[in-house]
Amino acid sequence: MSYTVAAEGVERFGFKPHGWGRRDYLRAYVGPSWEDFIGVFDEMKKTRLPSSWSWTLFFFPVIWLAYRRRYTWAIAVFVAMTLVRHFLSGWWSFGVPLAIAWFLGTFGRAIYVRSALDQIDAILALTPDQHQRVIRIQAKGGVSEKPVMIVLIAVLVIWLLAVFVAAGRF
Length: 170
Known about the structure:
Layout: H1 3-11, H2 22-30, H3 35-43, H4 55-59, H5 61-67, H6 71-87, H7 91-126, H8 130-140, H9 145-167
């Protein structure tokens, strides 16, 4: 990629890449709402896994994980919650998914920041050119609306199928 493309990517954030620290790279990686993650980043200097409550992660963990491009985690959480609800009965079918949601609501941002920093460190180690670093970090991180739409459409289709099966029309 050319210097012009790299400069345009850097200018979007409104600061120069010379003398960047991990906080600046995290800002480039996270993209929208990066301010929500800086507090977690600062707390990581004191403790390895700080807690930072997220209502979005608590109520919509699969959608949040897909939006933040954590597809493997999104699939794992979806499968775990679905299997638990299907195979366990009584309180367990409600309690275990609630515990998973609580864990993600409490520690999800910290897990995301730790994962982001690991990816940033890998990019920094492999890419000597500053502008290429920024481009690769932005490409690796950020958000994606497409998986969110896919998840919402899949949930709607599954719900409609359940309604039709329950009504005996399918």
